[in-house]
From TrEMBL:
Recorded family membership: Belongs to the methylenetetrahydrofolate reductase family.
Catalytic activity: (6S)-5-methyl-5,6,7,8-tetrahydrofolate + NADP(+) = (6R)-5,10-methylene-5,6,7,8-tetrahydrofolate + NADPH + H(+)
The protein's name: Methylenetetrahydrofolate reductase (NADPH)
Pfam families the record matches: MTHFR (PF02219), MTHFR_C (PF21895)
Pathway(s) of this molecule: One-carbon metabolism; tetrahydrofolate interconversion
Source organism of this protein record: Sphaeramia orbicularis (orbiculate cardinalfish)
Encoding gene (name): mthfr
Residue ranges of domain MTHFR SAM-binding regulatory in the record: 348-648
Compositional bias ranges of the Low complexity kind: 14-28
Cofactor(s) this protein requires: FAD
Main EC class the enzyme belongs to: oxidoreductase
Length: 661
């Protein structure tokens, strides 16, 4: 099969896929042929994890990482991905995902360790470390898991022996019995591809002959090829600091991250202590026991205990990074990080869209604007591209976007439950105006007539971005009248890249935007709109299409229009967002399908509500408008006003419909 994919230089090239799904490019690899004009520090996007640690440590920065475990249910997977997005906003250097042999961890199930880690990297843009254990694994099986991890874009492995299935460890034929065996195997079979983490035990491994013997085992793992160490949890800062000094004394020079466990509940503490075979210090049990039935009190104590311990570690001058065992909860860990000053929600973005952490996408710096609110969908639909556009979006006749039929995938599903969606979008729709109300309530953040706030739409699974709030008044006005907006941006003329609302890229630059508006509206409105748009050419470019592909445009049918760009010291002009006419036709299919897949299917097959959604799907048009004159106030609102004025003006009974001379 021959497809068209973007070359690294912005043009497009053909490649052939063999039956195995592998691709062979007809040109140079992206590594060799691409020029990178990405406006972020290239090191932050492409450096190995060990290099990021080294750079942060040498510069005196303090940083943190987070551990999660795979959920048991599909809904739990959806919730965990939402948590990744929220906790990722605080700036962790990486996250790690544990490996549970009983949970089919290497499978394609949405609850598997492999899929959760892959989703974090590819769809949430988080540097991720995948745990891998020797327990019940053959060498062949482990190699298969590592090959799959590499294929999915995972570059970091935490090599562990793992807990025995029964009371005692049983040797595995054709397998490994110690973490060092796994480290050696990774280095032997995959050379230096993976960064490898191993576990350290500040009080010694419970099965080791002595503390000193366990330190030697750790040194052997590092000497075999491990790049950094994360420790088991502990309860006193001096326990870790002594361990760190002892490691340095025997020649372990790699980063050693303290494992921090904020106490969040009595039962979770007991369970974790049982698994790790640790003793809780008496000064902690004295506080915990009297309040063991008060979860809020225990959590508050746990936060303060963790903050105090972390401050001692950081103030020692020997610790730069902290690793948190979250137990898949966010409140306690986020509060600890806030009190330590490590939680840094920088509103500025490296690019105007969410960046994937997959290594082969590291040069990508141009995307169509249509998927601005659905970045995970865009990544999914372009996952098989052999190379990604860099520097500019080239002319294209067929970008070969993948189909999107898998709306059920846990990283594409709405974060809200069906009941919550019905509360927001209506248990029963009466007419098209009922739909207009949903859009209007989303824009205004006001409760609907049933008292529920509309926090998302099928095309936007998050509350409004701060940038969109700049347009709130105008957006509310047009949505009330059936111009159902799903994407917009204000015009920006040379705002500093550090601007907290519209800024992106490194400091010292300036960002620019053309005003953009994308919406669904009725065929009657489109008829009037097309008449109005004639007097705004060539200032306004438009694309108007229905579900059947009937398309009206005044733009070049192959040429993209840059609608966001930035100028930064010592770099080429960067244009990361475009309106591309070919891509718009692929987006059109998805945008219309969301009416049915995520909204219509909430209702019974032949119900009036479902029929209303289907009518809109079948009869409305999808429109995008670009105001090219970005230094001036946007004219797009006047375009819409003129459309409504034309619709509201009664026809002249004396007119024969011809224009006067």
């Amino acid at each position: 099969m021959v497809n068209q994919v973007p070359r690294g230089d912005g043009s497009w090239q053909s490649f052939k896929s063999d039956s195995s799904g592998a691709s062979t490019s007809g040109g140079d690899s992206s590594k060799d042929s691409s020029r990178c004009s990405t406006p972020v520090l290239e090191a932050d996007r492409s450096d190995r994890l060990r290099d990021k640690m080294r750079r942060r440590t040498e510069s005196g920065d303090r940083w943190f990482s987070l551990e999660f475990f795979p959920p048991r249910t599909a809904s739990g997977a959806v919730n965990l991905i939402s948590r990744f997005d929220r906790m990722g906003s605080g700036g962790p250097l990486f996250i790690d995902i544990t490996w549970h042999p009983a949970g089919d961890p290497g499978s394609d199930k949405e609850t598997s360790s492999m899929m959760i880690a892959s989703t974090a990297v590819n769809y949430c843009g988080l540097e991720s470390v995948l745990h891998l254990t020797c327990c019940n694994q053959t060498t062949h099986k482990i190699t298969g898991y590592l090959e799959k991890a590499k294929r999915l874009g995972l570059k970091n492995i935490m090599a562990l022996r793992g807990d025995p299935v029964g009371a005692d460890w049983e040797e595995e034929e054709e397998g490994f019995n110690y973490a060092i065996d796994l480290v050696k195997h990774i280095r032997s079979e995959f050379d230096d591809y993976f960064d490898i983490c191993v576990a350290g035990y500040p009080t010694g491994h419970p099965e080791a002959g002595s503390y000193e013997e366990d330190l030697q085992h750790l040194k052997e793992k590092v000497d075999a090829g491990a790049d950094f160490v994360i420790t088991q949890l502990f309860f006193r800062a001096d326990t870790f600091l002594k361990f760190l000094d002892d490691c340095r004394a025997i020649g372990i020079t790699c980063p050693i991250l303290p494992g921090i466990f904020p106490i969040q509940g009595y039962q979770s503490l007991r369970q974790l202590v049982k698994l790790s075979k640790l003793e809780v210090p008496e000064e902690i049990t004295k506080v915990i026991e009297p309040i063991k039935d008060n979860d809020a009190a225990i959590r508050n104590y746990g936060i303060q205990q963790a903050v105090q311990m972390c401050r001692v570690l950081l103030d020692s001058g020997k610790v730069s990074g902290l690793h948190f065992y979250t137990l898949n909860r966010e409140v306690a860990t986020m509060e600890v990080l806030r009190q330590l000053g490590l939680w840094t929600e920088d509103p500025r973005r490296p690019l105007p869209w969410a960046v994937s952490a997959h290594p082969k996408r590291r040069v990508e710096d141009v995307r169509p604007i249509f998927w601005a609110s659905r970045p995970k969908s865009y990544i999914y639909r372009t996952q098989d591209w052999d190379e990604f556009p860099n520097g500019r979006w080239g002319n294209s006749s067929s970008p070969a976007f993948g189909e999107l039929n898998d709306y059920y995938l846990f990283y594409l599903k709405s974060k809200s439950t069906k009941d919550a969606l019905l509360q927001m979008w209506g248990d029963e729709l009466m007419n098209e105006q009922s739909v207009y109300e949903v859009f209007t309530c989303y824009i205004t953040a006001q409760p609907n007539h049933r008292g529920h706030k509309v926090m998302c739409l099928p095309w936007n699974d998050e509350p409004l971005a701060p940038e969109t709030n700049l347009l709130k008044e105008e957006l509310e006005k047009v949505n009330r009248r059936g111009v159902l907006t799903i994407n917009s941006q204000p015009n920006i003329n040379g705002k500093p890249s550090t601007d907290p609302i519209v800024g992106w890229g490194p400091a010292g630059g300036y960002v620019f935007q053309k005003a953009y508006l994308e919406f669904f509206t009725s065929s009657e409105n489109v008829t009037a709109l097309l008449q109005v748009l004639k007097k705004y050419e060539p200032r306004v470019n438009y694309h108007i299409v229905n579900v059947h592909g009937q398309n009206r445009t005044n733009a070049h049918d192959m040429q993209p229009n840059a609608v966001t760009w930035g100028i930064f010291p010592g770099r080429e002009i960067v244009q990361p967002t475009v309106v591309d006419p070919v891509s718009f036709m692929y987006w059109k299919d998805e945008a219309f399908a969301l009416w049915i897949e995520q909204w219509g299917k909430l209702y019974e097959e032949e119900s009036p509500s479902r029929m209303i959604i289907k009518y809109i799907h079948d009869n409305y048009f999808l429109v995008n408008l670009v105001d090219n004159d970005f230094p001036l106030d946007s004219c797009l609102w006047q375009v819409i006003d003129d459309m409504f004025e034309l619709l509201d003006t009664p026809p002249d009974p004396l007119s024969d419909g011809t224009a006067s001379e």
